[in-house]
Amino acid sequence: MRGLALDLPLPGSGHTWERWESLVEISARDLSLGRLAEGHTDAVAILSELDGPAPEGLWGVWAAERAEQRVGQTLDEDGGLLTGRKASCSGAAYLDNALFTAHSDGARRMVASSTRVVRQVPDSWQAVGMRDSGSIAVDVCDIPAVAV
Fold first, then answer.
1. Among residues 9, 2, 28, 18, which one has the least CA distance to residue 91?
2. Rounded CA gap, 97 and 112, in Å?
3. Dihedral of the alpha carbons of 68, 111, 100, 52, in degrees to the nearest 10
4. Is 120 exposed, middle or buried (0-12, 13-18, 19+ CB in 10 A)?
5. Interatomic CA distance for residues 16 and 2, integer angstroms
6. 58, 51, 47, 53: which is closest to 6 by C-alpha?
7. Whole-angstrom Cα distance, residue 2 to residue 134?
8. Which of 16, 34, 96, 129 has the largest CB neighbor count within 10 A?
9. What is d(CA 61, CA 119) in angstroms, rounded to the nearest whole number?
10. Residue 129 has what pLDDT?
């Protein structure tokens, strides 16, 4: 993904067509790459909208959940620590950072964290059509996260 033109117009900026056209062009070349590009540009848009941390490196959005595979969050004033298993993490093998959904005190929150400290769970998702997207489950154990 490095080297792709991923600096796309943000949603709501009046340039939706250009945004979608860029993602379509990437996906037409390689569907898995298009999936990862979409996740990165979605993360950049979310971080911009929520005044989150400046997006450096490659990002993804890991919001899919299974009831038996959730990430919990121990809160502190900066965000907290994440622990648990997160299913269906697109690009887990390639990304630098991700937006996670995490649970704490009965609430679901969005947090940002490095993906370099997660443990990949091999063969945890049979993404036949998206095999090259590196989409698998990850285990996290007390990794720092920033609230967004």
1. 2
2. 7
3. 160
4. middle
5. 23
6. 58
7. 15
8. 34
9. 17
10. 66
Q: Which residue has the tokens 């999936």?
A: 35
The C-alpha angle with vertex 125 and arms to 121 and 128, in degrees rounded to 5, equals: 135
Q: What is the pLDDT of residues 47-92, one digit of tens each?
A: 999 887 778 899 999 998 877 778 888 877 667 899 999 988 889 8
The one-letter amino acid code at 110 reads: M
- Structure tokens given for 64: 């899919």
- For residue 57, give Cα distances in angstroms to 20, 60, 98, 112, 147: 21, 10, 10, 13, 18
**In the 3-class helix/strand/coil scheme, how is 85-119 assigned residue by residue?**
EEEEECCCCCCCEEEEEEEECCEEEEEEEECCCCE
Q: Which residue has the tokens 């911009």?
A: 48
Confidence bin at 3 (pLDDT 50/70/90):
low
**How confident is the model over 33-59, as a mean pLDDT?**
89
